[in-house]
Amino acid sequence: MVYLIPKLTIIPVVKLYFRKINGIENIPKKGTFIAAANHASYIDHLIIAGSIISNFNRKVHFLAKKEHFDNPLKAAWHTYAGAIPLDRQKGGKEALQNYTEDVQQALDENNITLLQKTLQPYVQLIAKTKDWHIVDGYLALHAGLLEEQYTQKRLVFQERNFFLRPQEIPQKKKYLNQCVLVAGHTYMGDSPTIEKGYINIDLGAGYGKHIGALSVTEHKIIRSDGTAFYIDSSTK
Questions:
Q1: When comparing pLDDT for 93 and 17, which is higher?
Q2: Closest Cα partner for 98 from 110, 84, 88, 109?
Q3: Distance of CA 215 to CAs 90, 150, 182, 191, 202, Å?
Q4: What domains can be seen in the chain, in order of their start residue?
């Protein structure tokens, strides 16, 4: 349920004053839409949101001047309400671009909080699967290894493993000096990473891109669209 607190406090008051909404049937029940209105007062966003939330139970986002985020209390409220900070001196394009929660930017900045939020379904899935598997000199796993784990004969995964970025993993190092890591955690490139001790086959499949599969016998990675990437024998 979205906006539980406003539903119990603000929305009942809004409905007292605005009992009929002309054209509410034109708002789509599914998919995104833009509601544009004149900015006549400080409560117009509450009136618009109250009408949409009470009829469709949907999250609403607003453009709000960045000064509303200077005060911690106001910032907390506007963030909860779904407001997007806008620098009125620069315009709104940058604000909308920054709000897209770009996954590549989160990866580049190692934004663990955003990655955990974005990848929550994936984290729930991998919790039910086997953490790692060794086959023919390859250590297949969902994530990456911490420096100290390369010598652990009995691997014990932590949540941190699943949010390691490729640049944090010793890519030319082998597990127990024997096994090449074959990682399946998110990497947004179009071709797999192939190093002496590290191979990444997840090419951002959850974000409209590809995933790869390693054929151990044929020494190649097959991308989900059929493209093959051959592994040099020196990698092993």
A1: 17
A2: 84
A3: 51, 24, 11, 15, 14
A4: 4-100 (no CATH), 120-235 (3.60.21.10)
Q: Is the C-alpha dihedral spanning 167, 135, 230, 184 positive or negative? A: negative
pLDDT tens readout for residues 110-139? 666 766 666 666 566 656 667 788 989 999
In the numeric block, which tokens belong to residue 55? 């009829």
Provide the token pair at 194. Answer: 């192939």
CA 134 to CA 124: how far, in whole Å?
A: 23
Nearest alpha-carbon partner for 159 in 144, 180, 179, 139? 144
The amino acid occupying position 197 is G
47: Cα separation from own chain's centroid? 31
Which pTM value belongs to this model?
0.48
User: What token pair was written down for 68?
Assistant: 């509303």
123 phi/psi in degrees, rounded to 5: -60, -40
* AA letter at 32: T
- Which residues are registered as beta bridge partners of 204? 210
Q: How far is CA 162 from CA 104, 116, 170, in A?
A: 16, 9, 15
Beta bridge partners of 215: 220
Unique residue bearing structure tokens 């985020």? 69
pLDDT value at position 50? Answer: 76
| AA letter at 205 | A
Q: Which two tokens stand for residue 219?
A: 């020494």
| 25's tokens | 């049937």
